[in-house]
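Slide 14.
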Amino acid sequence: MPEPVETTNPDGVDYGWVMQVTFVATILVGAPAIALASTAVTLPTWGARVEFAVRVGAAVWLVVAVCVFAYAKYAQDQ
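Slide 15: predicted structure.
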């Protein structure tokens, strides 16, 4: 039987899992958060809308990434 092409045995936090969960959670949390936050701001042009989405999306991504990493670190220690 041939050897698997890729295997992983992470020592510590599995960063692949952290990245995947961060990506999915950011979309699930970020899209509604940006839509909700945009109701309180006047965005007259498409450029302003894009800039707003990028700025708020970056903040959401950072918060989600830190939370997912903290959870992975906590779960590893259990």
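Speaker note: Residues 46-77 form the longest helix (32 residues).
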